[in-house]
Amino acid sequence: MSRNATPKLKMRFKKNGKPYKGWFIVWPILTYLLALLLTVILVAVMVLTGSYANLITSFAGQVNSEITNPDESAAYFASDYSSDAERQEANREIGTDIMREGVTLLQNDDDTLPLAMGARLSVFGQGSVDLIHGGGGAGSIDVSNADTLIDSLKEDGFAVNPTLTDFYENGAGKDYRRVLPGETGVGSFAVNEVPVSVYTDEVKASFADYGDAAVVVIGRSGSESSDLPIGTLESGVEYLQLDPDELDMINMACENFDKVVVLLNTQNPVELGPLADTGVGAVAWVGAFGETGANAIGELLDGSINPSGHLVDTFAYDLDSAPSVVNTGDYTIANSDVTSGDKYMVYAEGIYVGYRYYETRYEDMVLNQGNVGDFDYGELVQYPFGYGMSYTDFDWSDFAMRDAGDSYEFTTTVTNTGDVAGKDVVQLYMQSPYTDYDKANGIEKSAVELVGYAKTDTLEPGESQTVTVTVAKESMKAYDADGAGTYIVDAGDYYFAAGTDAHAALNNVLAAKGKTTADGMDADGNAAMTAKVTVAELDTATYATSVATGETIENQFDDVDIRAYDDSFTYLSRSDWTGTWPEVYADGEWTAPQEFVDALEIDTTPGSDATEVTTEGTEGPSKVVEMIGEDYDDEGWMQLVERMSVDDIDSLVRNGGYTTNAIESISLPGTIDKDGPAGISSTLVGGASGTGFPPEVVIAATWNDELAERFGNAIGEDSLALGVAGWYGPAANIHRSPYGGRAFEYFSEDPMLSGQLTAKIVAAAQAKGVIPFLKHFVVNDQETNRAGGAMFANEQSVRDIYLKPFETAIRDADCMGLMTSMNRIGARWSGGHKGLMTNVIRGEWGFEGMAITDQTSFPNFGYSDLREGLAAGTDLWLNSSSTLWKLSDEEMTPAVQADFQRAAKNVVYAIANSNAMNTMGVDSGVKHITPIWQKWLWGIEVVVSLLIIGLVFLATRGVIRRHRWRKWVKAGSPLPDSTVGMDAAAPASASQSVADMPSALGDQPPTA
Length: 1008
Fold this sequence. Notes:
α4 crosses α8 and α14 packs across α23. The protein is 28% helix and 15% strand. The longest helix is centred in the last third of the chain and has 40 residues, at 932-971. The chain has four domains: 1-64 and 932-1008, no CATH class; 102-310, Glycoside hydrolase family 3 C-terminal domain (Rossmann fold); 356-552, Immunoglobulin-like (Sandwich); 582-609 and 626-929, Glycoside hydrolase, family 3, N-terminal domain (TIM Barrel, Alpha-Beta Barrel), CATH 3.20.20.300. It is α/β, with parallel strands linked by helices.
């Protein structure tokens, strides 16, 4: 063969119908690229699964540690039930009971309700087949076993229009469903009710056969990471207003039915003014159903239960009239380039949140003071805080007060004067004097504030019950940041009034002051339902030291007040309503002073000044089990911690995302920790779910401490059954504005109601060994910019409104856990604010437990820092990554190690007092194990690694052989014996043309 001859190889691969010689180059390149891609994927999987092993283990419902030599007799916390089936049935009934007492009747004209037993109903609204069971995100629940409204109504004996229901489920109505953002905040809100024009003649004709009553379901919900929109939607109205298609549907129902009932399956207040023009007979707020709450609705409709719920938020005709709404939204710091440090919010309304605003301005209008301006309570408030109707009537009498030392006891006799059995709620409100001292020092006072309540037993017609409400005298204090710098009790008259709601109570106070409708009141009050206490002198001493700990109380939040950076700012004041009405601070784009921008920078200075620490010590107890039941201050706790190596402490404190790690050196068992406030849930991180209950907002509407305790006990029972020791709940932030995206997770707009119910839940859950992580601490009252946003509020509102529910749970229930919020307070991340995390919760309240961060598993939370948090008093990182926040050896100084040890003590103490210790006897230990998923993954990694090696080998061998082939052609040499694809009879001479070799290489490329 001529050296210049071009070899021609017969090939299967062609381009444009001609042999594609480039395949010999492309094929190995593609093989190498595939091998490289598989390698990258393999490495990524190994890194991610290594870093997030604990999270994956939790998601898979597995464990990475176990107790060795377990002692089954060591049952420190035990279930009340003999089987899972019994527990589940009991818990589902508790969920229904919460709805039975949380349903709040708002309107019942002409005794529209109750309906006749077995009535024939038409149930309207796409929400009738797509119920809101809870909110989105951490507060979501597993609804796979949730009861439906239609089935529940049928089970209660109602005949339900099947044609109408089928229209929503399978007909044209199935194309209309509400839209919500997901838990990450991505998405939009839309009501998407079915337009009346879509209803077919067949559907409309079915109304006649099921015409005893129409039940209309209106749904609204929210989710983590998104607040409800304030502005106008595409429908032309706001999200919390009734949509035009909803109103058309309601009007259609009113035109075809004599009785129309509206069920508000909503978790935020809704503007209901337009219902007055529709002919609707009854309206009931039902909140969200949980798994089993729908079972209560048939009982509500037929009168099997008598509604006894009361509102936990003010329902205004115009929700935007609340002063908090002015500064609700997304506002930017124009001159900050600090990580996640360019957002802010100013709580310009001060203490005037919810009813505190509407009722106080109403009183000032009646008393003709405070530059009230153009204010008409009746045009603004449709249903006041605490409002709720019943199917029966109650009479209150014999209101009396008794001084009981550190408290006052108030008694009231409640008599059922109606025709059916029912429960009532006695609400007790206090009015503090608003003095010249207050005005001079910027102290604000609400016209009324809730200080106690009691729910009666079920009273039969004619039956009476005397209820007692105990109010601590400490409730009379208010925080004076600018004057005494501590809590004070003003001189003057304090009125205590019983009322069916906040407005009725205030009218009773005004009646005690001699005011009537002639003075501008909208109804005459009852002075007999009030009591007065007079304080002779201003008291700046009694509550200047903590009742709980004896520590001195002084300002801790000067840096959280916007006046620290803008001394011209004025908060809303009842001394001048019109002159101090809020505006959007800095028009929504604030050029902050450099002092504030500098303050945004993270401070990594250790909290300790230790120059040496003991690690892997030998003193004191050697196992956690030895310390069960010991006091928090016992030195044995720190001796245990000193037995832990630096790596042990780092593993425990830094990696607390949905788990805590087992520590073999002190026989500390690992824990599984999970969301959410409405029940232990698998919706975010997998594993098993407990019962999904109606959310906190519905629990609050029951005004029933016993139900709150039953809910807490149910959480404890699920904790024991599922092996989940840490519960990321309950949630105790305030409904600051009607548009809060997680209003369903929080109890109410009132701190007293929120705090008392929280304490009852926490105490009951802890009695079963749960570690409740009370959240989100603090001023995380909106979702917008919750990650890193700088929230500003004055010290009085921080203490008297936003901290109060947390304080109550810690002081009254010895809450063992706390979860910090993602936001900043002032310039400092909440978990990095020592005034909050140490001085207040431990110094003033006596907190003895562990404080965990909110989610820090991803690097975009770089506005916080491990060292900063530890120095401030935060103990555990909700961090599922084994590499994130890892400190270098140089950064792990003795001072930082000392901060770690302080945190570790709190974590160990809390776990030692939890149900994670069940079966831990004196001879028990713990050991790490490899989860099943990890073993499977290792097998897959081996297979993929072998595949990569094989691909590289084949591609490389092909390249080498191709090179040898080309060398042979150029040399005119005989084909090498090893040529792949060559027939057994190779050409004897190089002079034979390659083209003449019949299928010498076959139809495959040389590397095949």
